[in-house]
Amino acid sequence: MAPQSTDVRPRSTPPAEQFAARLLDILGPLPMGAAGLRGQAARGESRMLIDGELVESSSGVRFRNVNPATEEVVGEVADGTAEELDRAIAAARRAQDESSWARDGAFRRHCMEQFVDAMARNLDELRLAMVTELGCPVRLATGVQVDPVVDKVRFMAGLADGWQEATELPEVSAGPMRTLRQIQRTPIGVVGAITPWNIPLDIALAKVTGALAAGNTLVLKPAPDTPWTTALIGRLFAEETDIPAGVLNVVHSSDHALGARLTADPRVDAISFTGSTATGRKVMAAAAEGLKRVHLELGGKSPSVVLDDANLEQVVPLAAALGCFNAGQSCILPSRLLVPVGRLNECLELAAFGMSSVPVGDPFDENVFMGPLVSVAHRDRVLAALASGLAEGGRVVVGGGVHPDFDRGYYVQPTLVADAPEHGSLIQEETFGPIVVVQAYEDLDDAVRVANGTPFGLAGYVWSEDEDRARDVAGRIRAGMIGINGGQFTGGDMPFGGVGASGLGREWGVAGLDEFLEIKTIAAARFS
Ligand code: NAD
Q1: pTM, whole model, 2 decimals?
Q2: Beta bridge partners of 403
Q3: pLDDT (0 to 100) of residue 187
């Protein structure tokens, strides 16, 4: 592993190695023992969790799990069918309607806290599965994808018996009748949770913990590209907690149609979906048929706005390189870098340095920030989107293709694009790879206009020496989450979600619990 080159380093920036170290520092120190993961084989988990049992597919069929860094098949996973999905939904329905799960907050908290302990005991297995099947660098696994999720789940477990089920309103009178009024909050019922492959543990657990804490039961259908991580959630709940049979079911499948089937099933009361905007539209349309509650976490094209008073040498290389987080496969990434037009050339040079200095390599190397893309199909999709975007205009400043340093693995070069047309696909569509597009703005109003110039509204980033100025711009960006000067907007108590084409609703935090509750009013008349 090495940064790609130091040739493009502007005089005012540190050597590429120092910059790379700074980038890794953002992820925090490698926990004791995590360095020892290298050379260990992930065991993974092939079974689904249905009605309390860890099971193989009734068809006997399994699908392959491929390590995107080595292109090797690392294991097989039960390939769920419509039959398994049907059993899982029936079990979740029964557990919701016939058990005390929905009414026993203390027991829900107990089971969820057992799961927190199980995660903590099995961190290495979760990290190994993540690094192996996603190609996520070990530093990202420990710094973002796995370890911090334990505390997020702990926060949600604490909510399981803490929400107020009933609120009394002042009574009202009419003649001889007094009415005692109450607002109750109740679980929605059976939740269908559908998740993507890019942040497989955190996203699945946002849905699982919010829904369980609120007293719902669940069928979770993860994406086929990263099945082990989610299958491990099922196993830990089944083997290391007292959760009753049917409350949580995990059905993985190579067949995307199972997601559509789950959405359409009349026994499912609500759908919580994370994935692409295109699939989100289909989910919403299908849920409309049954008039189901939908919660959508969709794509993004988030702007990173560098104000003219920012320390450009410090900020621009970093703001650009952060677009390579998780190899660009994250919905919240700063994939558009907005810089003052008067300093465009200087910013391009600095951003090029940042992108060229991203340490790319073996995900098990603790000094690597970016690994491969998740699959050969996804790599080809990203490069095809880049090529067709460039055909509309724009130029590659750095990168632009398959990474030349690797003879195996689905590696793509960190890529910086300039001069892309504002209404072209490189600005308007998610590429979901390590591609950052630089856009120039005239003044603050124009910066806000450019920032808001896509249908998305997931995240935004503002960089300035003047926090008040940054907060003012943050207030004008249409997005669910804004980071100022690198501030972290994720956490167990921080609601996560977007607006516009980026989705509806919030996960994590109290808002992520409320998402899974219904409101019922009770009015009792008394004549006295
Ligand atoms: P995807 O939309 O292709 O698939 C997501 C899930 O939906 C998978 O489990 C898939 O099997 C299932 N699915 C496919 N077709 C379906 C249908 N018709 N009905 C119901 N389910 C169906 O997305 P992906 O490629 O797995 O993930 C990448 C996308 O997810 C990106 O667009 C990314 O921005 C988005 N994402 C959003 C967030 C967020 O919180 N906003 C977080 C992570 C990823």
Answers
A1: 0.95
A2: none
A3: 97
